[in-house]
From TrEMBL:
It comes from the Bacteria. Gene3D superfamilies: Cytidine Deaminase, domain 2 (3.40.140.10). This is dCMP deaminase. One of its GO terms (molecular function) is dCMP deaminase activity. Its EC number is 3.5.4.12. Residues 8-157 form the CMP/dCMP-type deaminase domain. Its cofactor is Zn(2+). InterPro entries: APOBEC/CMP_deaminase_Zn-bd, CMP_dCMP_dom, Cytidine_deaminase-like, dCMP_deaminase, dCMP_deaminase-rel, Deoxycytidylate_deaminase_dom. The lineage of its organism: Bacteria, Bacillati, Bacillota, Bacilli, Bacillales. Pfam families: dCMP_cyt_deam_1. Belongs to the cytidine and deoxycytidylate deaminase family.
């Protein structure tokens, strides 16, 4: 990008979310989230263990397995999901460290599509838009349906390219 071309707002805020994600010490996925009202940045957060508690890089991941029935083409399929429960998700930390009054009518930029739990929390937080970059197929359909039902704009930035210094190998 040349010096005379200004980034659009989506790129600007998603770049910030990716930079925030570099604070994460999770070995499976670095996630960053940014709260924005209009063009004003109100808060940032990333995924990690609670403050003062050893994180995954120090104590190892705390993986739990869950099973869910998924309907595909008229038949049911049992799907196994693995999640680390040591880590607080970036969206959850964003909600913990921002005020409800600031969230009312705001947008959340997050590097990854929210999981079901985070989507539920965001749906109840007062925000009106979620913008994300990387898909999270495990919960995608039900999250998208809930956002539509709640009237929350839910957009994926498909042509976005994160700053190269923020990239890591993502483990699903």
């Amino acid at each position: 990008m040349s010096a005379d071309v200004r980034k659009d707002w989506d790129t600007y805020f998603m770049d910030i979310a990716y930079m925030v994600s570099t604070r994460s010490r999770c070995s499976r996925r670095h996630v960053g989230a940014v709260l924005v009202q209009g063009k004003k940045l109100l808060g940032t957060a990333y995924n990690g263990a609670p403050s003062g508690v050893p994180d995954c890089s120090e104590a190892g991941c705390m993986i739990t397995e869950e099973y869910e029935v998924v309907h595909h083409d008229g038949h049911e399929e049992m799907v196994k999901k693995q999640r680390c429960v040591r880590t607080i998700h970036a969206e959850q930390n964003l909600l913990l460290f921002t005020d409800r009054i600031d969230r009312e009518g705001s947008s959340v930029y997050v590097t990854d599509q929210p999981c079901w739990t985070c989507a539920n929390m965001l749906a109840n937080s007062g925000i009106v838009e979620i913008v994300y970059h990387r898909p999270y197929p495990k919960d995608a359909d039900k999250v998208r349906a809930m956002m539509e039902e709640k009237g929350i704009a839910f957009r994926m930035l498909e042509t976005y390219h994160p700053p190269k210094e923020t990239l890591m190998d993502v483990k699903n």
